[in-house]
Specification:
Two copies of one chain form a homodimer. With 300 residues, chain A is of the alpha/beta class. Chain A has a single domain, classed as Aldolase class I (TIM Barrel, Alpha-Beta Barrel). Chain A has twelve helices and nine strands. Chain A has a nine-stranded parallel beta sheet. The longest helix of chain A is centred in the middle third of the chain and has 17 residues. The termini of chain A are far apart. Chains A, B: Keywords: Lyase, Metal-binding. Chains A, B: One of its GO terms (biological process) is ketone body biosynthetic process. Chains A, B: InterPro entries: Aldolase_TIM, HMGL, PYR_CT. Chains A, B: This is hydroxymethylglutaryl-CoA lyase.
Chain lengths: 300, 300
């Protein structure tokens, strides 16, 4: 029941958030967002991905973006990489940290990358060898940890298997994604209980979507299990591709509000975080999905 | 850490929700909503209030409304009553359960009803004597339990004092309201810990607003303390009067989704509850504030 004293927030808005926008966001706007996130004290900003521009045109400018980031000391800028080709692109622009992604659901893996979970892990082992040779840090994602859009419930043990595979492969941190936001608190705890049998809790991140409004409750539940890394998206950027109109990533502002209230250190500044959210919300001409942002702007 | 096996949901949409609408909602629409809530399995529906129609025109038709409710066995329809005059009105139409409301903040009580907390409790003792003589059940509200719009933080002990006063006065259930939605999980637990020193936990209800997105996390936190009664509002009806544009009551659909996920019995049917929310959202020509409702309708 002891909560962590400190939580690391991994900001995924520029990648996981903006990749869901219908129209690609220009590099200069992404740079403006990243700069404001740095000023708010965020120490990890997932900035883009080296995936096929044919499939994800929103991320097509990731190499250009990465090169233009005025990197701050103490801040890391992981880039998502699906395969060796992506890794080459990442290396060519001097990326120091990458993220690879697997899923805990067979159906999701089949539909998403057209292979089995086992094969997906095997494919990453090549990426991993190369990444290690170049001294890169590698973060691993597991999606569908609390449910799958195709097969529904996912057994906690399946999540643990995939998390262990990525950890054994050499990922220094495993981010557990409730991709469809269907999880509830006790299930989130059971999933963490299963995963911590294979991977130390300090290497686990909770990456929860708020599609059904459950994300903060689920985060509070896993904080109670000692999870001390949270992925979130400023202004709640990122819809849910499986339910148009529904919200996606939990908003960093709302996470920070809860952590502040719990007395947990993050190093983030709410005022500046709100400014970052305001910046991108104005560009997108959309009200922020963060309730904290709405309440505070309404109170002005 | 043991969660309750069963939770009673008190639906406050028709009163606490609709009293925040700019234009009063017609009696027939409220009746349609109440009927659909009954069909969804809700056993307590706060239907209206006998307050001055000058101050709260949204509730002016409460007597007419109450008389027209086709009351179902096993369902109670509490009506808010601020004073003896309100009680007389309630008795004249055969109300069997009333609710009275106090606050844990001196400033809020002064601004809201122009007297001290102590005086407010004293005033209710007359209402209570009369109510008991007529065999009415009385529910007591304490507002501002996790913060006040005027004085900020509220000590848990102050909440406990007011809750005890209402309990000693004869209220069978004390509903603890985070009126401005500023609470976070550990503070909610500390508040419950203080109150349960004076009032048995089975007589406590959590009435949390979602203005800052924290309501479900706070509810999960107090469920862990044994609280087994939750006030909520279908479709998240009810804005926050202190922050225009910000959301108010936690949505019943979102609460039910979490409780279902936790394996906690409620007697409510999600499909029918969504129909009730859809009915009132269509009338108000507004998207539901419930994320579950949005996600499920988006998935259709």
């Amino acid at each position: 029941m002891q909560l962590p004293e400190r939580v690391k927030i991994v900001e995924v808005g520029p990648r996981d958030g903006l990749q869901n926008e219908a129209a690609p966001v220009p590099v200069e706007v992404k740079l403006g967002l990243i700069e404001r996130l740095e000023k708010a004290g965020v120490s990890v900003i997932e900035a883009g991905s080296f995936v096929s521009p044919k499939w994800v045109p929103q991320m097509a400018s990731s190499a250009e973006l990465f090169q233009q980031i005025d990197q701050k000391p103490g801040v890391s800028y992981p880039m998502l990489v699906p395969n060796l080709k992506g890794l080459e692109s990442a290396l060519s622009v001097g990326v120091k940290e990458i993220a690879i992604f697997a899923a805990a659901s067979e159906s999701f893996t089949q539909k998403n990358i057209n292979c089995s979970i086992e094969d997906s892990i095997a494919r990453y082992s090549d990426v991993m060898v190369q990444a290690k040779q170049h001294g890169l840090l590698v973060r691993g994602y597991v999606s569908c940890v609390l449910g799958c859009p195709y097969e529904g419930e996912i057994a906690p043990e399946r999540v643990a298997d995939v998390a262990r595979s990525l950890y054994e492969l050499g990922c220094y941190e495993i981010s557990l994604g409730d991709t469809v936001g269907v999880g509830t608190p006790a299930k989130a705890q059971q999933m963490i209980d299963a995963v911590t049998k294979c991977v130390p809790v300090e290497n686990l991140a909770a990456h929860f979507h708020d599609t059904y409004g459950q994300a903060l409750a689920n985060l509070f539940a896993v904080l109670q299990r000692g999870v001390s890394i949270i992925d979130s998206s400023v202004s709640g950027l990122g819809g849910c591709p499986y339910a148009k109109g529904a919200s996606g990533n939990v908003a960093t502002e709302d996470v920070l509000y809860m952590l502040n209230g719990l007395g947990i250190q993050t190093g983030l500044d709410m005022e500046r975080l709100l400014q970052a959210g305001d910046f991108i919300s104005r560009y997108l001409q959309r009200e922020p999905a963060s309730k904290v942002a709405r309440a505070l702007s309404a109170a002005d």
